[in-house]
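Sample pair:
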Amino acid sequence: MPSSQPTQPPQSDIATAARAPAIERVPREKLARSRVLVVGDVMLDRYWFGDVNRISPEAPVPVVHVQRQEDRLGGAANVARNAVALGAQAGLLCVVGHDEPGECIVKLLGESGVNAFLERDPALPTTIKLRVLSRQQQLLRVDFENTPAHEVLLAGLARFDALLPEHDVILLSDYAKGGLTHVTKMIAKARAAGKSVLVDPKGDDWDRYRGASVITPNRAELREVVGTWKSEDDLRARVTKLRKELQFDALLLTRSEEGMTLFTDDGVLHAPADAREVYDVSGAGDTVIATVAVSLGAGLPLVQGVALANRAAGIVVGKLGTATVDYDELFH
């Protein structure tokens, strides 16, 4: 993908909106005190790298001679890994299968510094996103997935109750794979305990996220719920109505090349895109919500967390595949 310079949004009302504050260095030891519990759908991001030298005689498709395989943590596991990369303490509550990719996730989590709290479902094929690449270009993605058993999810809910007091911020990472079946109960329990709850949503049923502190959709995800907006004023009206109905303290809209916009009772705050080179946007949303969660866990104001998340997103899109941003990169 060619280099992309950040572009200013065409809407004049975005251009004149309040801007996120300038980045200030946060002491490393302050972020280290942040304790984030990530709950959600985990997956194995598997990459096959190879060369293409011919077209298949069976069909007009390239033949990839696979020469290297790389496995990375994906989904909620990548969110937790991003939190640890920034120097925070991160726990991960999730379900994986008793299979080869499940064991691979266990191994990678052990190496990552994430505190893993795994429920194992023997009948569940662990979710895999297999990407085939040649010369750094993705040619194909193949998904393997299924839904966890009801009993395993109930066990996860019981463990959630035990883990809640040990964490400052709860981050719910929904990839619509079934791991957050009890998300409404989790939000209610966490808010009752005085915890901030961040949600990365999926699908059009956001009533299940009712009462969350911050929800972080991208443009397509928000459009699926509120419809297509005609202007920034229209967008603000739709988001205000949604936040009031579902009792969200804040909504952070990630807007790709337009940066991100925060909607709260205090008004609208816009952070222009900070990308120097766009290489791969996969996993950028994971980096954004993890950075905000770590910031809140460290006692920083939400607007400062958004500014840090915007910078982190600008860095991570310059990397291939699901990746992280560490403390030194963020505050270089």
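The longest strand covers residues 42-55.
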